[in-house]
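Can't paste images in this forum, so I'm doing it all in text. The chain is below; anyone willing to post the predicted structure tokens underneath?
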Amino acid sequence: MTPLARPSCTPDEYLRRERSADHKSEYVNGRIYAMVGTSRWHNFIAGGVYSELRAQLRGRPCEVYSGEMRVKVSTTGMYTYPDVSALCGEAQIEHRHVDTLLNPSVVVEVLSDSTEKYDRGEKFAHYRRLDSLREYILIPQDLPRIEQFVRHDELWTMREVNGLDATLTIETLGCTLRLADIYDRVEFPPSGERERG
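Text version of the structure:
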């Protein structure tokens, strides 16, 4: 991520600017970071997760959001846009604009070359400070594999699910996703080649 504009600004300045901007930016440690565009495969994967969860959560007291819903980590002050976020129960929303979620229980990030290190490292460190967060899910674009981090009290465990025939169970939401559905229409590079975007 490369910073945008001034080296630091207040959260209120960020939100004022963000609400009138024609592109999304994140806010971390007093800095604004422009978000990079996403690839076709990234959109297929994020859209697949969102649509599958939305269908399974219909009629239940749960909510699922696409990458347009901003999430705030109140303890660190980070504002970000997960590819998918969800919760069951009452949503806590910051401000009257109803555009910033404070209590996701599940966050999904689709990995790309430009964000993978950040998504696995600093961003996950921020997310772990969310008391509400129970599952953090990372999905690469170049192979059918999902990494699922699950919180048990203060301990995080990791589970990996591989192959298009596999399924991912998101216990926090009571949902099961087939990797074949998540990766529908995604074309993987030939074995040995890795290209994400």
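The radius of gyration is 16 Å. The helical segments are 11-20, 40-57, 116-120, 122-127, 179-182.
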